[in-house]
Design brief:
By secondary structure, the protein is of the alpha/beta class. The chain has 10 helices and 14 strands.
């Protein structure tokens, strides 16, 4: 990259700290955090100072941060219900926006209203000539998957099981809200113009598990998809996906450079590659700098992902 991008993270704890580390890793400068309290901001700043030498400022006011720092990129890691408001204000401040998945979400709104918000953000970014991307980073694993098992342009089936741990186990719907965009991002990476066939959707939402099946159709080709996402109290966790029965397990391990690497394993084969979040944040930075054409997950794809996510779960 030519000049270091100035990045601000909204969401000063949890996943936001990891995002900050990846932004630093790709050569950007994390100039600020926005958190809910000074105490949480201070704690995050201390952690990141030890991690990569963070020298930015901490804020509890988004508007003050935008005015004082004027960042090039705002990375949204705050709760789902805040995404729309934060993204709107960041785009209005002439910032590029990278947002955690889902792009927008508010359980109190109808599916139509949620999609309207997402489309407004897409239109706002387009009119402002700003990039808007979403962090459903598993989409970036498709080239590594193809390298391991071989490419398949028109697979007839897709399956995924993604398990995660949570301090407090969530309802099946909340698990789907958080985890559903990941398998959908893999489907859309393979079939960018896929349409959901609503007549084929089956869903089982019980306890802490969402189990769904559905077909997608693209250019007359049909692919049957089976997805399970669930919360567990602790490891071991299963994270696997595949097309046409060629499934791989997703694992991570420290690399020689000090950053985590992504390892895919299947049928006695193994391939090590860059962590998918590292890939996604790096490509977003290069896109802003004009070195790539688009983010890994564009605003249009984020809206498409959200539409499919809502349709599969039957959100009214």
């Amino acid at each position: 990259m030519t000049n270091s991008l100035r990045v601000a993270i909204v969401g000063a704890s949890g996943i936001g700290r990891h995002h900050a580390n990846w932004h630093d890793a790709v050569g950007s400068t994390v100039v600020a955090f926005v958190g809910t309290t000074p105490e949480r901001c201070h704690e995050s700043a201390q952690v990141l100072t030890k991690t990569f030498g963070f020298q930015g400022q901490a804020y509890t006011s988004l508007d003050e941060m935008l005015q004082q720092e004027r960042p090039d990129v705002v990375d949204i890691c705050s709760p789902n219900e805040t995404h729309y408001d934060v993204a709107t204000r960041a785009l209005a401040a002439d910032c590029h926006v990278l947002c955690e998945k889902p792009l927008v979400w508010d359980a109190s709104l109808s599916a139509h209203q949620i999609l309207e918000q997402a489309e407004r953000l897409q239109d706002m970014a387009s009119r402002a000539n700003r990039h808007l991307g979403m962090c459903s980073q598993l989409a970036g694993l498709l080239p590594q998957y193809d390298n391991l098992v071989g490419p398949s342009d028109r697979p007839g089936s897709f399956e995924a099981v993604l398990e995660t741990t949570c301090a407090s186990l969530r309802s099946a719907r909340d698990v789907w809200t958080d985890m559903g965009p990941h398998p959908i991002s893999l489907i859309l990476a393979r079939f960018p113009t896929a349409d959901l066939d609503l007549s084929t959707v089956t869903r089982s939402l019980h306890g802490h598990e969402a189990k769904v099946t559905f077909d997608v159709i693209t250019n007359g080709h049909r692919c049957h998809c089976s997805v399970i996402v669930r919360d567990l109290p602790g490891p071991p966790l299963q994270r696997r996906f595949g097309f046409d029965g060629r499934c791989v397990d997703i694992a991570g391990q420290p690399g020689a450079d000090g950053y985590y690497r992504c390892v895919l394993r299947g049928d006695g084969m193994e391939d090590e590659g860059t962590d998918p979040m590292h890939l996604l944040i790096g490509q977003f930075a290069r896109t802003v700098q004009g070195e790539e054409k688009t983010p890994i997950v564009t605003a249009a794809t984020a809206v498409q992902n959200l539409q499919m996510q809502l349709g599969v779960v039957g959100h009214d």
